[in-house]
Amino acid sequence: MPTEYHDLSNWDIGFAALLIIVNGVISVALKLGLEKKLIVASIRTITQLSLLGFILEWIFQQNNWFYLFLIILFMTLTAGYTSSKNATRFYSGMWINSIFAVMVSSWLVTSIALLTVIRPETWKENPAQFVIPLLGMILGNTLNGISLGINYLNESLINNRGRVEMLLTLGATRWEAARDSVQSAVKSGMIPILNTMSVVGLVSLPGMMTGQILAGVPPLSAVKYQIVIMFLIASGTALGTIIAVVLGYRKLFNSDHQFLYERIQKR
């Protein structure tokens, strides 16, 4: 018999917050200097998630496609910008490429899931309840893959500039000269999700599956949903990373097969 859903109170959240306070005390004792970051991160977590909760409740009540579009557009733009802002090297227009890669990959994968796996008859009454959580999980992982991919591409091309230019001088095409860097960049972006998929269910229980089980959903049903989510995340991450890396490659090499290394700047 599934356990009845238990709604957490503010006191429950407060007790969980005590664990962060303990970490802060340890930081002070060991002079790690992390206490301020822990406080800021905790406040941001509470503020951002609480605000999100109010927004989602309002959107679910409105059940309006226009408001749904606005929030998923905001989520996508934020993910695209975030995926490019932390790179140690950048080129002009990199954030636009990142936003494009995030949008195409995450929206495409989410649409396929809603039309073929979950099916319209399930979500047509309240699409926001399905679209926002699905897209959010895909976006969060895709932006990590894109961030790692484009950062690796820029670093690899600069570090191997001599080899790349030598190959071009010897008659290699831009693809032949950049292929190793492009391939390694895509692999770099895929490492986190591949590691997660390798140990899921053995080392960790994913957040969505854990939440469903705590809410009283039978474990096997929660597992089925989690399997689908993992495949969607992997697909979105792979597609987004490939798009971002290829766009970066085309930005840094022209049609005359010249390496435009001067476009890569260090932050």
Helices and strands in order, then pairings?
Elements lengths: L9 H21 L4 H28 L2 H21 L3 E2 L3 H24 L2 H4 L4 H32 L1 H9 L4 H26 L7 H8 L4 H34 L12 E2 L1
Antiparallel strand pairs: 1-2
Helix pairs in contact: 1-2, 3-4, 3-6, 4-6, 4-10, 6-8, 6-10, 7-8, 8-10, 9-10
Characterization of this structure:
By secondary structure, the protein is mainly α. It has 2 domains: 7-62; 65-266, no CATH class. Helices cover 78% and strands 1% of the residues. The protein is built from 10 helices and 2 strands, in the order H-H-H-E-H-H-H-H-H-H-H-E. It has helices at 10-30, 35-62, 65-85, 94-117, 120-123, 128-159, 161-169, 174-199, 207-214, 219-252, and strands spanning 89-90, 265-266. The protein has a two-stranded antiparallel sheet. Helix 6 packs across helix 10. The protein is globular and about 70 Å long. The relative contact order is 0.12. The mean pLDDT is 89.
